[in-house]
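Prompt: For my understanding, could you write out one protein's sequence and backbone structure tokens?
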Amino acid sequence: MDAQGRGRAENIDPADQWVLNPNTGEYELRLTPSAPQSAVPSPRRAPRAAGAGRAAEGTARTGTRTPAPARERGAPEPDAPGRDVPSPRRRRNAPPEPAPGRRGRRPAKKKSKAKKALIWTGGTMAFLLVVVGTAGYLFLKHLEGNVSTTDVGDAGSKGFSKDEAFNILIIGTDKRTGKGNEGYGDKGSVGHADTNILLHVAKDRTNATAMSIPRDMIVDVPDCPTKQPDGSEKVIAGTDNVRFNTSLGQDGRDPGCTMRTVESVTGIHVDHFMMADFNAVKTLSSAVGGVDVCLKHAVDDPKSHLKLPAGESKIEGEQALAFVRTRHSFGNAGDLDRIKVQQQFLGSLARKMSSSDTLTNPTKLYKLANAATKALTVDTGIGDVSTLKDVALELKKVPTKNITFLTLPVIDNPAEKKVHATVIPDPNLSPGVFDAIKNDVSFTEVKQKEKAAKDAEAARLKGPQSAASEVRVRILNGGAKAGSASQTLSWLQNDEGVLKSENAGNAPAEAAKTTLEYAPDQAAQARKLAALMGLPGSALKPGKSVTNAQGLPTMTLTLGKDFKGAGVSLTATVKAPTVNNQSTADKVQCAS
């Protein structure tokens, strides 16, 4: 019987059977006394290193940067290694090696390091940088010093909430930092936003959406305040009609500028960012023992040095990086086809991370956590390991089958008449995708969610309704476009027959959502107005009535920032649009 089987049979956590051998630095299996001790050596247990205090938190890397020209989509890319070899980035020192200690029983409530690894890294991960967050709590004292942070100011959220939906922008740069990366990306690049994924995690944690953003998409980059090393603030002027990848690095832009650009394009607020260089793919794929990929045809690409047979292969290190970076081996040799391959790789990594082979191997977990955090830069809102642990625990609640990978819908840039090198957001398809993410609508389990939403709505609005002529309501503008209250008043009176309505001007404070407050004896009126306007059940707020100009009790309708216009239903869609080539993390796909 193996260690895992014995643990199940004797109600013993498998993690408690692994201990660190201070002489070799490796974890080894120590079976319980009931097991034959001669089969596996039982090394002494090492105590926690003395003086292992919290390491200094990483600082933001800012400063003047030299712009590098952006590549055209579909143009040749310098994949092959070059000759210029920069000095590798220096890392913080590893913690002192633990000294041998007395062997004996631990206190009942104290968990071993290996057991903590199982707790904080258990569950499903969306993709490699999310895995970084999941691994972050392992060996707290050492790993916290690995993580670098950047202060993005009000571009993101100040902290992390475990009770709300959240959005994390995953950024992979093309900067040649790290040992062995001198041949990748653009020589001398300041670090553009080469790979970009907006991860939305639902409030109820039943699903998540990972939307890839093409680097060659034409956008307007807004003005961006950046924090300087001396603590001062410098505003980087925005630029119009440029590639998305220039939102990072160009003219000294930091990840906060990329976050602001995403919000400008999609209307989706980005709470946090995680950024890594080429080393993330190499170290993480090696730490988990390789990632399984599948190809429909054999690949022999001299530019990226990727050589794989048709069918299934296991890749790691340099080969894994070549796989996610090559754009000459799949599809039309463009960036959009490379995004599809990257999504397949990340889905496979998610499955590998949630496998028992990874979760029950303390040595593998330690290597994963140590390597991953060294390649990671995050915003200060999640810059400590304790918060990264909270992010990880929320992510682990999302089933792998409900993590959807998709690409922001785009079309060829109509401004380019001959060579289509760039793209723009599809004006017909992209708004629906953005609305679904903003409204926390799942791209999976649509039927179940749709039925639940309809049932809840029906229960909320069930009951008799007054005639439109009996509805009394005053209208306040609480954040909608200027003139919305008067326009709604005109529509209600002239088109819907709600004659006992009045415009009460602006609300005392702005509101994110439109609400209708009513007294208990006005419920029938509230249901009628909700039906006319398409208000969701959540907009109805039982409360108090107010007195109108005629001295009669009146409901209060406050138009929030979500108000779409007079006569336009406010009921959020419960069905996300279908996007070409979208997939889920549990599906095995072959690159073509």
